[in-house]
Design a protein that fits this description.
Layout lengths: L12 H17 L6 H19 L10 H22 L7 H13 L3 E2 L4 E2 L14 H8 L7 H13 L11 H5 L16 E3 L3 E3 L8
Antiparallel strand pairs: 1-2, 3-4
């Protein structure tokens, strides 16, 4: 991956962000520990380097969709703890917003084979895969008039019918509640060259 941007890496972003997220939580839960400040600085510095290394200019995350969503799931829980404990708001970080915006644009049209909207089954993934709880959790941290919030809720609503429990599935909705008050329209998308990923053909989006 991008060893020039990272202090250490095992070339698997989700395996690296996992322990760093845990370290941030320890520093928030145990602020009186003599190493808490070191944990916080080390982990947040590393998470910042990960966001630089793995989020492309278009917002594409350099993992399969399954692991991109998995990485994001515990990033969100961590970002909420960081925001509440120290007032550091990663939900408005440009890299995170690009990542989430890309997810709404990468979400596929209706797939008649599985009778569902789904992310494309590329790499290590499952079909249908909606990431619905993750998208809704991020939306809950944004202002009501934020266009990204609208896009996230619209994408969530397309996938909520196939939402399934997973390692994070029960945690995110419980900890970051948001219940959309109405249906949100999906923005029609044009075809797009997604840097470091390829081309998304969108001439008929969001048609079945």
């Amino acid at each position: 991956h991008k060893p020039d941007k990272l202090i250490w890496t095992n070339c698997l972003p989700n395996f690296q962000s996992d322990p760093m997220s845990a370290l941030v939580h320890l520093s928030a839960i145990l602020p009186e520990h003599p190493d808490a400040l070191h944990w916080r600085r080390f982990a947040l510095d590393d998470i910042d380097r990960q966001l630089d290394a793995y989020c492309s200019p278009s917002g594409a995350w350099e993992e399969s969709i399954n692991y991109a969503l998995f990485t994001l799931s515990y990033f969100l829980i961590t970002f909420r703890a960081v925001k509440n404990r120290w007032g550091i708001n990663y939900f408005q970080d440009d890299r995170c917003r690009r990542f989430l915006g890309w997810l709404t644009r990468f979400f596929g049209p209706f797939d008649k084979r599985v009778d569902s909207y789904t992310f494309p089954g590329i790499g290590n993934s499952s079909v249908p895969d909606t990431g619905a709880s993750v998208l809704l959790a991020y939306a809950s941290e944004l202002a009501v008039d934020d266009p990204l919030r609208h896009d996230l809720i619209a994408t969530y609503q397309l996938g909520e019918r196939t939402l399934r429990l997973s390692e994070d599935g029960a945690i995110l909705p419980a900890g970051m509640p948001l219940f959309p008050e109405h249906r949100y329209p999906v923005r029609p998308l044009a075809s797009e060259h997604m840097q470091e990923l390829g081309v998304a053909m969108r001439h008929a989006h969001p048609s079945p």
